[in-house]
Amino acid sequence: MRIGNNVLVAGARVAGAACAEVLLDRGAAVVVYDRADSERMQALAARGARCVVADAFDPALLDGVEQVVLSPGFPPHHPIAEAAREHGIEAFSEPELAWRLREPGAARWLAVTGTNGKTTTTTMLAAMLETAGLRTAALGNIGVPLVHAANGPFDVIAVELSSYQLHWSSELAPTAGAVLNLAPDHLDWHGDFDAYAEAKAAVWRGGRAVVNLDDPAVVALAKHTDAHVTGFTLNQPEPGQFGVALGYLVDYTGDEPVQICSVDDVRPAGWHNVANALAAAALARQVEVGHNDIGDALRKYVPEPHRNVTLVEHEGVTWVDDSKATNPHAAAAALASYDSIVWVAGGQLKGVDVDGLVAEYAPKMRGAVLIGQDRALIADALARHAPDLPVAVLDGGDDAVMTEVAARAAAMAEPGDTVLLSPAGASYDMFRSYAHRGDAFAAAVRGLIGGDEG
């Protein structure tokens, strides 16, 4: 059964509501469950969905249900997922439903997953496809819901997929899929690292795998795939690989190496983004996008916000917003990009150890300003590895704390330093999203510098 006639949709935010709308359009009987009432719930009820608002899920809601569409945030151990398993009911999430909705002639999917760099790579890929004259969009974890675009006016779409979304998939099989990197993240959701990595490997289900040869965990994962592997590396590529040679991104999958563009053309700066660009290029070549189009797209690419973006340089100090660094692996990429740093960090570590990150990068730090739920864990790590480092641990519980963050960081910074917001943790303890956190930081920096200049 590809799509059932009686479906429970769990969660009525953007993706869940979109799924319910599409299912209603198909004539399915739809039950929508959410813990909170909303305008979306009311609109779905007006369209004929049975909408149930309750703190606790009642398994009786599964009576007569053939399939369950779960919002990606629902982990395998959630009562709804467990109840579906016990009743033998198939469960999946919005990207899987979108895949099943595809009609003959629908757009091909090029998919991107990994611990970090997904949105940057996906939007780079979409830029390459567009430059080549293909009808495209960057979708998945970004953009409009996939279920609304499954049969849209596209030739190829660039799809960002999270480990959550891939876990809740079974038929989804992109033309090609890239795993950018793997580091411990979302272990509270998946249970352990092996389950997290296994979910990521589903992106290779279509038979063509783009693999980061510099990441041992990705290489180990790729040993278990039957897909055809194209590797990318920041080193000089061997035949069959993408890589870097003489300061250029290079495609060596043909008879001779082909230069794509200069390393200096890649934005945002940083070797991790060169790796992202190589992954995007490898995917674009899977649908025969030309090298000139790939290079032109990278030269014109405008970085997404909150990803190692310089806000301002003032009195010799550079202020950088990398709020998207929601885990230590992402923060490491930013910390590696600068020589002398005042680190602004903290949030929800999601069970991931930060000790290795601190041990490696504390020698580059002028000071640290810590906020958020797990700030004490980062402070303890800094005390172990850099006992003489100035550290400010702030107790504010909302975005107003950023004013003090900027002031404390400015007091620590010296000319030539970078004040880097790269939190290494999720944002939901204090902010609506990582974007809200980055915006609050940027506003505080503007307020501080404006005050200095006035």
From TrEMBL:
Keywords, alphabetical: ATP-binding, Cell cycle, Cell division, Cell shape, Cell wall biogenesis/degradation, Cytoplasm, Ligase, Nucleotide-binding, Peptidoglycan synthesis
Molecular function terms, GO-annotated: ATP binding; UDP-N-acetylmuramoylalanine-D-glutamate ligase activity
EC numbers: 6.3.2.9
Enzyme class: ligase
Residues of the Mur ligase C-terminal domain: 311-425
Residues in Mur ligase central domain copies: 112-284
Chain sites annotated for binding ATP: G114, T115, N116, G117, K118, T119, T120
Location within or outside the cell: Cytoplasm
Primary location group: cytoplasm
Catalytic activity: UDP-N-acetyl-alpha-D-muramoyl-L-alanine + D-glutamate + ATP = UDP-N-acetyl-alpha-D-muramoyl-L-alanyl-D-glutamate + ADP + phosphate + H(+)
Family: Belongs to the MurCDEF family.
Function: Cell wall formation. Catalyzes the addition of glutamate to the nucleotide precursor UDP-N-acetylmuramoyl-L-alanine (UMA).
Protein name: UDP-N-acetylmuramoylalanine--D-glutamate ligase
